[in-house]
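Researcher: We plan to redesign the surface later, but first we want a full-length starting point. Tokens attached.
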């Protein structure tokens, strides 16, 4: 069989869901059908150690540029040198840069993007949102295929940016259950006070993740509840101040980035997702692997598409701290079946199933 060369392109390995998905794809894609080459604009980030687990023969190219926009000419040069059958990129601003240069290449090379968030909302966080909106409308259809993780994301591109519907396909994120489960008991000791109701939240300390609302919600809960937040980001100082102002130092701990969040997820009573918007939140799927139910805001994005109400978690319709607190109290009283939650994830999001969907799309597009 003719092996197809895929050039995977990312800015860095800073530690988000997009990075996890890309590494999972490279690790599990059928090497008899595909030869992956991993291009990073800057070889840095929390997930650098994961590169050591990639199969032998996977070439990693470091463009040594701090920002993606400065790396675009180097990316163009690498495409010319390695002559890939597919260029596969993720993260919005990098996707836009590659969409701009796509017309300069042969139609024999297929350019495929993977969106990592709900674009219409994500663009509002940029310094020049109107410029990003304009670029999505003008150049995004240059891609041969666009992969979104949820139906919500697909509809957002079609309705707000005029992206051609036939160019978009929905593929959920893959979850490497086997890899995650190996980390359940790694720390070897209890992480929580077993006499308390223990809540866990994981993500960048950024406005998108809504941790400020979550902290407010904890103020409405009685002393039985404890919250641990794992992650780092520019909101850490503000959140620390908020926790102190509300007198919640005994109830909330910020533990920073953890290489093994799964041990915490496994022991927690509930996982909390307080995001203002998402694409398709990997952390919810990872909590499912750990058998932990999720309480989440029904915010824009694909969150509602992966929560089975009352069985794998609860969706909170109103984006209010009081509503979130009420849902947490309700969920704590429910008897969630951990085995059901794990099987729900393995059935719908297991890595073999999802990677196969990617492989089929790659092959079909190369032969189209």
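Model: Full-length starting sequence:
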């Amino acid at each position: 069989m003719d092996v197809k060369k895929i050039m995977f392109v990312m800015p860095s390995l800073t530690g988000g869901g997009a990075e996890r998905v890309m590494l999972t794809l490279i690790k599990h894609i059928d090497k008899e059908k595909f030869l992956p080459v991993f291009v990073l604009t800057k070889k840095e980030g929390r997930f650098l150690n994961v590169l050591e687990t990639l199969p032998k023969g996977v070439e990693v190219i470091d463009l040594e540029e701090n920002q993606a926009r400065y790396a675009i000419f180097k990316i163009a040069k690498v495409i010319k040198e390695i002559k890939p059958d597919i260029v596969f990129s993720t993260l919005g601003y990098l996707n836009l840069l590659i969409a701009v240069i796509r017309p300069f290449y042969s139609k024999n090379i297929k350019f495929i993007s993977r969106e990592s968030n709900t674009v219409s909302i994500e663009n509002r966080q940029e310094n020049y949102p109107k410029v990003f909106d304009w670029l999505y409308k003008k150049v995004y259809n240059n891609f041969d295929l666009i992969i979104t993780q949820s139906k919500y994301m697909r509809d957002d591109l079609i309705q707000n940016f005029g992206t051609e519907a036939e160019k978009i396909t929905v593929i959920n994120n893959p979850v490497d259950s086997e890899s995650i489960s190996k980390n359940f008991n790694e720390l070897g000791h209890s992480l929580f006070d077993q006499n308390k109701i223990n809540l866990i939240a994981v993500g960048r300390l950024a406005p998108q993740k809504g941790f400020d609302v979550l902290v407010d919600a904890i103020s409405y809960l009685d002393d039985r509840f404890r919250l641990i937040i794992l992650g780092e980001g520019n909101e850490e100082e503000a959140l620390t101040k908020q926790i102190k102002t509300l007198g919640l130092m005994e109830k909330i701990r910020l533990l920073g980035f953890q290489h093994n969040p799964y041990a915490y997820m496994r022991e927690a009573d509930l996982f909390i997702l307080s995001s203002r918007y998402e694409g398709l939140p990997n952390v919810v799927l990872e909590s499912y692997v750990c058998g932990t139910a999720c309480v989440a805001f029904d915010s824009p994005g694909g969150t509602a598409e992966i929560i089975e109400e009352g069985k794998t978690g609860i969706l909170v319709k109103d984006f209010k701290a009081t509503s979130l607190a009420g849902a947490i109290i309700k969920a704590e009283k429910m008897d969630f079946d951990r085995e059901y939650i794990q099987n729900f994830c393995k059935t719908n999001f297991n890595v073999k199933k999802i990677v196969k969907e990617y492989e089929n799309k790659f092959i079909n597009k190369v032969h189209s």
